[in-house]
Structures are given as structure tokens and as C-alpha cells.
Design brief:
Largest sheet: 13 strands, mixed
Number of helices: 11
Shape: elongated
Number of domains: 2
Order of helices and strands: EHHEEEEHEEHHEHHEEEHEHEHH
CATH class of the largest domain: Alpha Beta
Length: 361
């Protein structure tokens, strides 16, 4: 890293020139304009996670790279917003030579964990342990073209979903969709539905964590070209029945928190919502919906392709790295073992559902 100087700052200490340089460097990478990789996401995380830091790489007197992260005990670092961030990595000038160990050392880290490392992150990619699909919906040619793709690859799914939408209108009242809802009450409803879903399926309730709760509320108020919070709501007779909160750039909508009112489950309101989101996003000039890592039947039905993301960690050899490995790697390998065996994964899901039922009682 000869000639490269590294300055570590809190996100709010970044100057306007540095923030603009971040945006310009990101635009030149050629990667999809994922809003999680824009400075606004890191800035907002920094305001709810005080430990958050950004390593600013300087070369020839100019900002040449940005590496956001969160340090932890014993130098065990993690991607910014790990647990909710769906795209992770560094933003670097093309051709900038960066040694991951030197970068970690400059940040005071013994390890840096990631679970949604963006494809093309050559600095950290050699340290990836697993690769996952992140399904996407390509609406670059418009919604009508996307619907034609669905008619060819998922005809029953499309036909059934549209029929349920009509039935919802007949039985529950006029169906209305708002792509960018600003009403905080709708956001509260979504978060309540999502918390109930987490409990119902035996999973940890993300919205029970105050920093995530606050982060989502603040991002709902964020309005910039590269990263804006978008709350989409499906109404029936002016009653919200399904909603989604995600982040958008000019060309990408990163899908994040979808949920629905279980009283309307028979109408599959979540699927109707996704179709209307795709339609409205195309009208907004968005070319891609990123459905996020993880398999699900609805994603298989909706997707037109996939991106790749990676999980793993970069480490500095030494005692602190050994402690990190012992605290994280056995658990990660156990999860990987279960995921790679569908029958075992089915048993695990059944156990989680039973746990959710017990919690509900």
C-alpha cells in the first residue's frame, strides 16, 4: 500500500468533499447502484451505532477509498450495519492496490466479518467462506415486459396472484397502492407485522433492537439520490393490508422488510404488493429490484436473475484472530451444514415454527 495514507474517522466527521468523492468513486465502479453502499447509509448507521467508523484512504492528496466498519471487543470488527445491511464492502478507486491485512491493521481490527459482501470486492473476496444467491427482478425494459416474463416462467403464480387481487377488491374494498408512503402510522403497522412474523417463525425480532428500530425510522426520512427510504403500502378500503420498507437509488430498489396483516393472508397480499412495487418502480425509472439473500418460494416465482453475495471474514494472524475464529466459525459452519441439506433444514424450520408457537402462547 505504498503511497496510500489511511485516516480513520467517525462517519459524521466526513467532510462534504469526502462524501462527494465517495459518491463519485461508487458511481465509477460499474456495480449496481445499491443504496447500502452509499455514504448516507453509513452516516445514518453512525448516528445510531456510535462505534461506527470509516477508514478514508488517500492517494496523491485525494480520497481514493472508503471502508465503513464497526469495531468490537478485541478488535473483532464487522460490516457496517451487519445484521440488516444487504450489501457490504469497500468503495475504492479503480486500480488502487490495497492489502486487506494492512487495512485491518490501520483500523485496529484483528478481524472483519461480512455476510453480504458484494461481488467484485476483490480485496476481501479471497477470504469469503460461502457464496449465496441474491435474487433480482429486472424491470429495465418496463413492467409490461416483466409481466410477459412472468407469464412464461411462472404462469400459474401470476394468474393466481392477479385473481386474488381482484378478489381482495371485491371482498375487502377498493385496492389501492402507494409506492412512497410518508405516513409514520403505516411504518409502525409494518414494524408490528414484521415483529409478529419474527416471533411466529421462532426468529429473533430485529425490531426489538432499539438501534434497528431507530435506523429504519431515520432512513424513512432520508431523501437523497443515492439512498432514500421507500415505504410501499397496499390498501384495501383504506386499510393497510401489506407493506414493504426498503432503500432505493436512482436505479435500484433494495428490498428489505416486507410484511402483511395475517387477517388477509388468504389473498396473498405480500405477493400482490411485490407486483405493484415492480410496476411503480419501473415507472420511477428503477431498473432492478434486489430481493436480497436467502431462498423463498415467492422470490423464486418473482425473480428474473440473481446477483452473488458472500459470507466470511478477513483476519490478522494472531491470538485475537484465534479467539475470533473460536467464537464465530463453529457456529457459521453448523449453519452452513444445515442449509446445505434440505431435509435437515426442513426439520430446523419446523423447530423454529414450534418455538414461535410456544412464544405466542
Amino acid at each position: 500500500m505504498s503511497g496510500v495514507r489511511i485516516r480513520v474517522v467517525e462517519p459524521d466527521e466526513l467532510g462534504e468533499g469526502e462524501i462527494e468523492a465517495w459518491r463519485e468513486l461508487r458511481a465509477k465502479t460499474g456495480a449496481p447502484a445499491n443504496p447500502f453502499m452509499e455514504p448516507e447509509f453509513t452516516l445514518t448507521v453512525g448516528r445510531v451505532r456510535p462505534a461506527a467508523r470509516v477508514a478514508v484512504l488517500w492517494e496523491d492528496g485525494e480520497p481514493a477509498g472508503f471502508f465503513p466498519y464497526e469495531p468490537g471487543p478485541l478488535g473483532h470488527g464487522r460490516a457496517i450495519g451487519l445484521g440488516v445491511s444487504d450489501c457490504q464492502g469497500a468503495v475504492l478507486r479503480a486500480g488502487l492496490r490495497v492489502a486487506p491485512r494492512e487495512l485491518l491493521r490501520a483500523c485496529g481490527l484483528s478481524a472483519w466479518a461480512f455476510d453480504n459482501l458484494e461481488a467484485g470486492q476483490t480485496v476481501f473476496l479471497p477470504d469469503a467462506a460461502e457464496e449465496f444467491a441474491s435474487p433480482v427482478i429486472d424491470i429495465g425494459a418496463g413492467y409490461a415486459a416483466y409481466e410477459e416474463v412472468l407469464r412464461a416462467q411462472s404462469p400459474k403464480f401470476l394468474r393466481t396472484t392477479l385473481a386474488k387481487e381482484r378478489k381482495l377488491g371485491r371482498q375487502a374494498g377498493e385496492v389501492r397502492f402507494v409506492f412512497d408512503e410518508r405516513d409514520p402510522a403505516a411504518l409502525r403497522a409494518l414494524m408490528e407485522w414484521k415483529s409478529a412474523q419474527y416471533r411466529r417463525t421462532g426468529r429473533r425480532d430485529r425490531f426489538a433492537q432499539e438501534w434497528i428500530n431507530t435506523l429504519v425510522r431515520r432512513l424513512h426520512e432520508t431523501r437523497t439520490a443515492g439512498c432514500s427510504g421507500v415505504l410501499s403500502v397496499l390498501y384495501a378500503a383504506d386499510r393497510p393490508v401489506a407493506a414493504h420498507f426498503g432503500l432505493r437509488s436512482r436505479t435500484v430498489l433494495s428490498c428489505w422488510f416486507p410484511a402483511y396483516d395475517v387477517e388477509f393472508a388468504k389473498y396473498s397480499p405480500g405477493l400482490i404488493l411485490h407486483l405493484r412495487m415492480a410496476e411503480s418502480a419501473a415507472d420511477e425509472g428503477i431498473g432492478m429490484l434486489d430481493l436480497g439473500r436467502g431462498g423463498a418460494e415467492y422470490k423464486d416465482a418473482l425473480k428474473t436473475g440473481e446477483l452473488r453475495v458472500h459470507e466470511g471474514s478477513s483476519v490478522l494472524p494472531g491470538a485475537r484472530a484465534a479467539l475470533y475464529w473460536l467464537s464465530r466459525e463453529p457456529s457459521r459452519r453448523a449453519h452452513s451444514f444445515v442449509r446445505s441439506r434440505p431435509r435437515l433444514a426442513g426439520y430446523a424450520q419446523k423447530a423454529l415454527n414450534q418455538l414461535g408457537t410456544l412464544r405466542g402462547n
